[in-house]
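notes to self, project folder thing:

trying the whole complex as one job this time. last attempt i did each chain seperately and stitching them together was a nightmare. two parts in total, labels are on each line so i dont mix them up again. if this works i'll redo the older ones the same way
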Amino acid sequence: MACAPKWCPIQDQNRAGGRPPRPNNKGRHTFLTEWPGNCFIHRHNFKRPEPVMPNPVPIPDQTPRLRLRNISKRYPGCLANDAIDLSIAPGEIHALLGENGAGKSTLMKIIYGVTQADSGDVIWQGQRVSLRNPAQARSLGIGMVFQHFSLFETLSVAQNIALAMGAAAGTPKQLEPKIREVSRRYGMALEPERLVHSLSIGERQRVEIIRCLMQDIRLLILDEPTSVLTPQEADDLFITLRRLAAEGCSILFISHKLGEVRALCHSATVLRGGRVAGHCVPAECSDQQLAQLMVGKAATLITDYPKVAGGRVFLDIQGLSWLNPDPFGCSLKNISLEVCSGEIVGVAGVAGNGQDELLALLSGEARLNRNDAATINFAGLPVACLHPDARRRLGLAFVPAERLGHGAVPQLSLADNALLTAFQQGLVSKGMIRRSKVEALAEAIIHRFGVKTPDTRTPAKSLSGGNLQKFILGREILQQPKLLVAAHPTWGVDVGAAATIHRALIALRDAGAAILVISEDLDELFQIADRLGALCGGRLSPLHATVDTRLSDVGGWMAGQFNAPHSPVPATA
Amino acid sequence: MLLSLEPRGQQSRLMLWCSPLLAAVLTLGCGSLLFIALGHDPLLTLHTLLIAPISDWYGVSELLVKALPILLCALGLAVAYQARIWNIGAEGQLLLGALASSALAVSIIDMQSRWALVMILLVGTLAGAAWAGLTAWLRTRFNTNEILTSIMLNYIALNLLLFCVHGPLKDPAGYNFPESAMFGDASRLPLLLKDGRVHAGVYFALLALVAVWVLLQKSFIGFQIKVLGLDKRAAGFVGFREKRLIWLVLLISGGLAGLAGVCEVTGPIGQLVPQVSPGYGYAAITVAFLGRLNPIGILFSSLLMALLYIGGESAQMSMNLPQAITQLFQGMMLFFLLASDVLILYHPRLNLRWTRRATATAVPAGVL
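result (full assembly):
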């Protein structure tokens, strides 16, 4: 490691900040500093971390807006939060980082009163409180924007906000000017009369945020807010958040995207395995350092893979149009796409721009008439009218976006889930399941792809997201596909598992398979895809080699500007 | 909160076996209290209800006769319920099986060949399957709710049966009773015991038991059925054909119910009567769930249900217990069985003292 990340183990704080030395082993949780927590990285042979940076924005000696002391929460079979300490000053934008399953969601739910801690204190502006439900949290001035929006699509913006506010909303006539005023003040354009189903995802998020801002808000919690936004929309959101913070509102920002955390947040708390792994000032750490703090091992997590040109065309989509029977869904318009053997094609796009529809047509869950069968071809064979199992016989493998409930059956064991898509690989004989072969396959997947699980009888739902994704990807790869379609392969997956998944995809590419990756994560696409395009409003942009593409180009395609002058950049992308 | 349930996260193997025992103990205990309150000797009453009916071979044979149609219907229902196809129409499918086979049996009443029985069994099974096929067709073609259509078809089947026994199938020599003629000997199921009514239908039930077990536990079709039931999207994603599977499970379920109907009319009854089924098709729903949709579990639960039927009748006769009391006892047993199942997924925690509840302090104004 080149330089030590600027996390701040408690020992060094004490030395640097001149605070009283803390009692050694016993009082780990009883003593509190402004930077509470314990650093575990420190036990390894890294360089001695530097002294803590004072928080740049909040004034020292101010009562923290929120302080968590010793929060623990146990769920059956796991300790989700283990003695977590956290402190957020007024006007601070604080990032909560961590792998999946690190305990971020549990901690947020405790702060928002959705669930209660088993032990520990929540101290709100210097007073100990017990938050029993979200309504109480809201009355204290805590607001939360969930990753999955809770809006009624058939109601208007104002009606949705009125529902959340209850009696305080007043009549629509009184409420609408207030909504306009708030949206103007924070630079979030929003029309109160519009029906929610006609809003884009970014606009819906604004409704959620404005709903929180309508009351006197002092702490805003955002759960992965940028996962649904284009880069431009995310920048707009950051402007709003900075303005809010400048007014004294504290913000707790949960994100996987390390670049954003560095750009936006004043300070960060990193969770690992339910404990505080460390604190840092994100602006002074590299992605690599942050990632290591989250994962806790010094593996190479971000790699540059060589870009290649593919061989013969395997997947060939010609002028694919599809009218979505769902009036709120997206219809596909004249999509043409070629994926060659031995290359990875990446398709970017904000959710809801036709990804689900394209994926359904590729997997065979949605099918076209026999007459239109030639719009989708596998190695020259028309397949658009075939069922999924028939397509799989021709070499298709598929990793759907939703792991549980689509790619795997939650209640079934891993062995049964291996059988789910691999049943045409000699696992069934004369209508009977060959148990030993199924077990062997599941064992092989678990072994080859490092899936952490007690055994093959474990139900799929008890695996963490990353582990299950490794299992699903492994299941598809071990079928030796000629074409792999992967939707959001590392969505909600921790950094370590994401690196494993990327390596597996690259290895499959190098073994000669054609791979189509549909993802919202632009970093991921730039990292693994050889050619890139984007979906917008059911249309697909022309594809370009990744090395000739800049991030801003893709941003334009995602916004529908396919004709924007595309200037090749010399090999630096 | 003094008593709270906490999810275990995983099924408890121990409770899987213990919960029926716990339920039995609770039922016996509460049942005794009930009988004491009514002024009956609890031990004697329980003996009359649960032990006396099967204390001799005749009783055992009666138990099997009673359990047979319930078991056949419940096995079929288990297949459908595994696919989350809620077939409530076993009763109607059973009645139609009985009706169609009786129509054939009456028309070949003089046939001496054993093929008569084979034909009758086949026709009854197919009729039951066809009746369920109606539900399947409505579901796959028009996406109607199979619960509603199968229930409504029950009433249609019952009225068809009543129409036939009062009309076309009525025995001309039957003194105008609404009954068909007695079937010929060649169309009756052979008896297994000299002094009991138990008949060869037991073999069919055992065969069905093994077949359903193999289907659900070992075969790939069974796997597809389970996946469809647990997760429709996953089934579509890998190309299991939803409509075909719906047809299949409903045909199996209807066929077995139809077979149960044939076994009733060609076995213990010997003719078509309006009261072919005292609600076997409905009892089978309870039995299927009580057996946790597992063929072996269903075998035991159908025997238990049959025992409760018979014990209730004999308690009415010998102890003068009102029927409502025996039904109450049955209900109690089912209630405790299902309630104890909660312990498989949850474990109770007893808090002896009230947990401290710090109240939220209001935020003083001006802190901000």
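what i see at first glance: The radius of gyration of chain B is 24 Å.
need to look closer tmrw
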